[in-house]
Specification:
- This protein is an alpha/beta fold.
- The protein contains 7 helices and 10 strands.
- It has a 10-stranded mixed beta sheet, sandwiched between helices.
- The longest helix has 11 residues.
- It is globular, with a radius of gyration of 16 Å.
Length: 209
Amino acid sequence: MSYLSLEEGRALEEAIITMSRGGIVAFPTDTVYGIGASLEHPAALQRIYDLKGRQPDKPLPILIARAEVIDDLSPDVDERLIDLAQRFWPGALTVVLPAADHLPAEVKAPDNTIGVRLPNHSIPLTIAERLGGAVATTSANLSGQAAALSAAEIKDSFGSKLDLVLDGGFSPQENPSTVIRVVDGEIVVLREGAISADELRSAWGTASR
């Protein structure tokens, strides 16, 4: 495993090259540290499941570089949901959308949906942009354990099993993103995280009028 500080000149470039070749990389985000892999390398996505001990029915979330990328990820978007999301994007809000057929199975839930987020951090934004606009990313921890807030915690959990760890200091946010979807015309909060359910429901009431 390589361990690079983001203060090193080519650290980010090395991470992008590693992922483009089918490697998995841990890196800081605007919430907690994440482990990411290219959507073009299903074997790398499966490695993330194996390393985390993640249940196969829990899809890997997707971080996007730009909101426009959604057009390639989801064939049937509820525009009100996207309007709501963009009030909080870039930021700690994940929206659940119907999955496009071409996406790998590892990012799809059993009901053929995906979780998508536009992060507020230059590192995942750059990685996603260089890898086609989107990258599969989940929290950097063993399943059932607390999410890693530093590169040191990742080393303790995974040892040398990752291909590369980018050290960007301590995470600015201890909470993961809030996850929402639309059901029967109303938003349902599947996981409350950095953005409160009350704030989202209030914003949805305004957006859906």
